[in-house]
Amino acid sequence: MRRAPAPLVVLLVALFAAGCSATPPPGTDGDLTDDWAALATPAPFRPAAGQCHEALATTAPVDDYRPVDCAELHVSETFHVGTAADADVVPAPGSPGAKAAFRECSDVAADFLGGPWRSARVAVQVVWPTRSGWAGGARWFRCDVTTADLDGQSRTSREGSLAGELAGPSPLHLACFDPTVDGETVKTMLPVTCAEPHRAEFAGLWKAPDVAYAKLESDIDRSATGCRSVIARFAALPHNDDLQYRSGWISYNPTRTEWLSGERRVRCFIYFAERTFERSLKNAGPRVLPVR
After folding, report:
1. Other Cβ atoms closer than 10 A to 70
2. How far is the C-alpha of 66 from the C-alpha of 50, rounded, in Å?
3. Rounded to an integer, what distance in angstroms lies between the CA atom of residue 134 and that of residue 59?
4. Domain boundaries defined on the chain
5. Which residues of 240-276 are buried (b: 16+ CB within 10 A; e: fewer)?
6. Which residues form the Septum formation-related domain (predicted)?
7. In Å, what is the CA distance from 212 to each residue of 203, 223, 257?
8. Apex 53 CA angle, 118 and 164, nearest 5
9. In sequence order, which residues have a C-beta less than 8 Å from that of residue 51 and are 6 or more positions away?
């Protein structure tokens, strides 16, 4: 049998020994497993505050989340994102979880806007994850604000953020109005400056009791009593039986959705069927508003 030359055998042994050396190559530690970062646990989608949207919704599917710059035309603005208590399903309207979320949104809205939103032509709405998002671990709720009419129904587009809007003079503050009334139904409430002829003016808020919404809507006497007490304070009038002969009243209840969420503040307006004024009636007193 033919043998390999001795020098070749020595070379192969040297190469093998180098490959099995305990000393790793320069710049390495020889461990192939310790430098891999652990994969992050997937987190559910969570929206951001400070975003504006082209529509106002009650739920926010991830696939439809397309915020726009608040400088562009938009309908609603997210001013706060809260964390909901853990539950099996999205809180239903009227549930403790839904009321807690609305209360948080309402409180934060006053800070964000710079004043009480119920005293302005704005509305606050809670936006929830979808059922599938909730099932996937989402536990957030979005607080959105939008400009709205007195019924809280008609949403209007605007440009620019509402941050601090109510801290100073603003056309959104409830003030004087020129109403159109058919019988006992208010058809329209056109906002005007108090220096213009007008027949109605925002007097303040009355906190209604915790009753069924249908009862709130049907109990006119309760609303009259509540709003007359507000008007008496606003216009510096005696709060007695003669008040009904000094002025009328108009009230705007919270929407059904707001009522289910725990909103109890009713908007009250001093109103005159025939007389017009070109001034505010705040602290007007009996001389300006005598018994008639």
Report:
1. 19
2. 13
3. 11
4. 51-167, 176-288
5. eeebeebbbbbbbbbbebbbbbbbbbbbbbbbbeeee
6. 49-268
7. 25, 14, 12
8. 40
9. 67, 68, 70, 77, 78
Q: Does the CA dihedral 82-85-91-93 come out positive or negative?
A: negative
Give me the phi and psi of 63, to 5 degrees please: -65, -25
The residue assigned the tokens 């100073």 is: 168
Residue corresponding to tokens 């099996």: 88
Name 191's bridge partners. 177
Nearest to 160 by CA among 81, 75, 80: 75
Residue 62, amino acid = V
Show the CA angle centred on residue 119, arms to residues 114 and 199, nearest 5°.
140
Question: Tell me, what's the pLDDT at 199?
Answer: 97
| Nearest residue to 254 via CA among 49, 101, 102 | 102
> Each residue of 221-276: pLDDT tens digit?
999 999 999 999 999 999 999 999 999 999 999 999 999 999 999 999 999 999 99
Secondary structure letter of residue 89 according to DSSP? S
